[in-house]
Amino acid sequence: MAPTLTLKPGTAWQDAWRRCLDAAPEAFTDDRVRNLWNGRWHADGRLLPCQSPVDGSPIAGLPRLDPADAHQAVRASLDQHRRWRAVPLPERKARVAAALDALTAHRELLSLLLVWEIGKPWRLAQADVDRAVDGVRWYVEEIDRMMAGRTPLAGPVSNIASWNYPMSVLVHAMLVQVLAGNAVIAKTPTDGGLACLTLASALAAREGLPVTLVSGSGGELSEALVRAPEIGCVSFVGGRDAGGRVASDVADLGKRHILEQEGLNCWGVWEFSDWDTLSGQIRRTFDYAKQRCTAYPRFVVQRRLFDRFLAAYLPAVRSVVFGHPLAVESPDDPLPELDFGPVINAAKAKELAELVDDAIDRGAVPLHRGTLADGRFLPGQDTSGYMPPVTLLAPPRSSPLHHAEPFGPVDTIVLVDTEAELLAAMNASNGALVASLSCDDERTAARLAPQIRAFKVGLGRPRSRGDRAELFGGFGASWRGAFVGGDLLVRAVTDGPDGERLPGNFPDYHLMP
């Protein structure tokens, strides 16, 4: 009989909320968070109820700003920007470094908020905070040479990002943009991260950084956050539908932009034999329920290797551990080592289950279907936000799982017989951010890799966004605008010599670094 689990003492949402009230009373009240604009915290916006994906319990709701107030926030950010861009670089560095020290001091609270708001297991939540802090510290050390011959933009940078990496993607980008001399605006993701981003923004604002944080509907606020003439650059991370609308807006206006969109990242297996290594890599692809832009939800496998691939794959997927991220057997136990917790909300879990059932009805073959009984949960807790891992062979072309990223713990496997079929299957989504190819022969791998339409292609290993000096972008429909990472992130949010062409994927040109 499985042991009865209990919530780790001191980790309840109410515990985290009380710590937020103590840490940043200017940003949090007893019953809500405030929006930050014009250098002050405002109790404005219509509160929307919100539930934790962890157990369906109520957590802080979004203070949804209306379009008129959003325009005021943007105009105020331009005033901040004009003052900040004149601040000498040594002072900007000192203030950003002080903000990083404050984030480090609140590392555990920021991580706990990520657990409750977006369902990250403890290990991955801490890693999200650490990558943000460590990454920006690298920029503080390198920014002098990066800014040589460059100036801040004419207006603030507007950030609209998905919910899955509030710290290591969104806060990281905001602080580097500030370091480069820009004021920044961020919209809280609708699906999660409100309290974590509010605390991080409060700590940054205390150090005098020109940060604006507002909440609201993307459709309602896009006129202010994307199309407003005050905006110097739009930075977007999200799906292709929303990204396409943003891309249309910025193209019409000729505005600087960085638009990271989804793609179906594929892992190819061709003329391969190191199954022990691949099995370990397969399990790690399930981190955070594959809810990241560089997840691998599709395996493209040479048909004659399928029996050996399956012998390596199935033990890996069956070893995945999921459940409540804060559930322990004994109060003194450390928090559990999970591969993933819930997906972002119950609606997403329901959508994924329906996609799987529909694909099977249309002819896909279920190779593995986990159950909630495999998970680690508290007695009687709401589990509607959880999706056990699923693996489908040969999803039909009529299914969205054939050509789109599921953003959940659902793998699909496609079998191929020729190199041409391998490449066609790996390029099914017209561009991706990452891909990998497992192939014993280095020459064959080196010949095939350039034909895979992904910005990063790993040979026998997974790829990720990367940190510090590593560049990041996408091919095809997975990316529009300037590439980022390393020096390119600073170049994307500053002006250089007249006539400069930034590396990126633009309407009129594509330039690799």
TrEMBL record:
Cite the SUPFAM superfamilies for this sequence.
Answer: ALDH-like
Q: Which UniProt keywords apply?
A: Oxidoreductase
Q: Which Pfam families match?
A: Aldedh
Which residue range or ranges hold the Aldehyde dehydrogenase domain? 47-487
Q: Which InterPro entries match?
A: Ald_DH/histidinol_DH, Ald_DH_C, Ald_DH_N, Aldehyde_DH_dom
What domain of life is recorded for the organism?
Bacteria
Q: What is this protein called?
A: Aldehyde dehydrogenase family protein
Per the UniProt entry, what species is this protein from, by scientific name?
A: Streptantibioticus rubrisoli
